[in-house]
Write a structure and sequence with these properties.
Length: about 210
């Protein structure tokens, strides 16, 4: 009976003429085509969105997917992709991660080169709080090359000029604000020092080269 309905509908014009994919930027287009597995002219009612949607949502770049049939002739796929958030270096490998720590790809394109490099076993799942605080201090953020999770408790920042900024376990936003003020008033990041230790709330300890 179902096959008869599909055939009858196809004879009446309910065939695939358009496959619209909306929101795709990084998701592999060929992989999407394989999963959709439908060609122009196929009966539209023979395409089952409820079967395809879970498959598309398993793609690493896809945060959320919605798959629909739009009568009389269109398949519509709407993607919400992860935004490349940071790089994670572990065991000699570097991958791109999303804001929740999801591994997106190990293909390092040129447009990923400016992402912060995270180091540490649990760094991907701890990074969002740090990066949100850094985004509030853009003058500091633009100088950061990487962040190292120390003892699964706190972060060290590695700056592009090689300096290390030791951050406290708590009140990280306050520590970054102190660093930003010191940079504005005294250009501390340009001074000949190797380490700036912000772990004490009432003082800044500087180690010379």
């Amino acid at each position: 009976m179902e096959e008869k309905v599909i055939e009858t509908a196809a004879e009446q014009g309910f065939r695939v003429e358009n496959i619209i994919i909306e929101g795709r930027e990084n998701t592999d287009l060929e992989l999407l085509r394989v999963l959709i597995n439908t060609n122009e002219g196929d009966p539209l009612l023979d395409f089952h969105p409820e079967d395809i949607q879970p498959l598309i949502q398993k793609i690493s770049w896809v945060r959320e997917a919605k798959v629909m049939r739009r009568m009389p002739n269109t398949i519509h796929v709407i993607l919400q992709e992860y935004t490349p958030y940071a790089l994670w270096q572990q065991n000699g490998k570097v991958v791109v991660i999303g804001d929740d720590g999801t591994i997106l790809t190990d293909v390092l394109r040129e447009d990923f080169k400016d992402l912060i490099i995270l180091t540490g076993q649990n760094a991907p799942h701890r990074a969002s709080g740090l990066l949100e605080l850094l985004q509030a201090e853009p003058e500091i953020l633009k100088e950061v090359e990487g962040a190292i999770l120390v003892g699964d408790r706190r972060w060290d920042l590695k700056m592009k000029n090689g300096k290390i900024i030791s951050l406290p376990e708590s009140d990280v936003g306050f520590a970054l604000r102190r660093l930003s003020v010191a940079q504005q008033e005294d250009q501390i990041l340009e001074k000949d020092v190797s380490v700036i230790d912000l772990r004490e709330p009432d003082r800044m300890i500087v180690e010379s080269r």
